C-alpha cells in the first residue's frame, strides 16, 4: 500500500508541477472568480502548486525507496497539497476534486502503514 501511495505521490507531484507551470505561463485556462475570499492572483497559485508539487514528487520518490521519515513528511506535504487544492477549488473545480480524493487516499495509505 505504501508503494502505491509513493507512486501516486510521484505522479501527482509531477502533475501539480505541470498545473503550476500552466497557471504561471497561461492563466486564462482557469476560471476567474471576482469575489473569492483568498485574493491571490493565478500566478501566485501557480507558484504555490509548483513548489508543493516538486516537494511531493521528491518525497514520493523517497517513500518508494522505503525511507521512514518520508511517510511522515509525505503526510504533511500531501495535507498541504490537499488544502491548496481545496482553496484553489473555484479556479479549476474538476481537477481539484480529483486531486483531493487522491490526496485523501495517499494520506490514509501512509498513515496505516504495515510491513508488507
Highlighted features:
75% helix; 116 residues; mainly alpha; 4 helices
Estimated helix fraction: over 70%
Q: What is the 3D form?
A: elongated
Percent of sequence in beta strands: under 5%
Number of strands: 0
Unreliable stretches, pLDDT < 50, 5 or more residues? none
Report the C-alpha radius of gyration, rounded.
14 Å
| Succession of helices and strands | HHHH
The separation of the N and C termini measures 8 Å
Average pLDDT across residues?
Answer: 87
Count of folded domains: 1
Transmembrane segments: 7-25, 45-64, 69-87, 93-113
Organism: Kitasatospora phosalacinea
Keywords: Membrane, Transmembrane, Transmembrane helix
Domain DUF7144: 1-114
Short summary:
It is built from four helices and no strands.
List the helices and strands and how they pair.
Blueprint: H1 2-25, H2 42-65, H3 68-87, H4 93-111
Overview of this protein structure:
Helices cover 75% and strands 0% of the residues. The radius of gyration is 14 Å and the shape is elongated. The longest helix is centred in the N-terminal third of the chain and has 24 residues, at 2-25. The chain has one domain. The model has no long low-confidence stretch (mean pLDDT 87). It has 116 residues and is mostly helical. The protein is built from 4 helices and no strands. Helix 1 runs antiparallel to helix 2 (42-65), helix 1 packs antiparallel against helix 4 (93-111) and helix 3 (68-87) runs antiparallel to helix 4 (93-111).
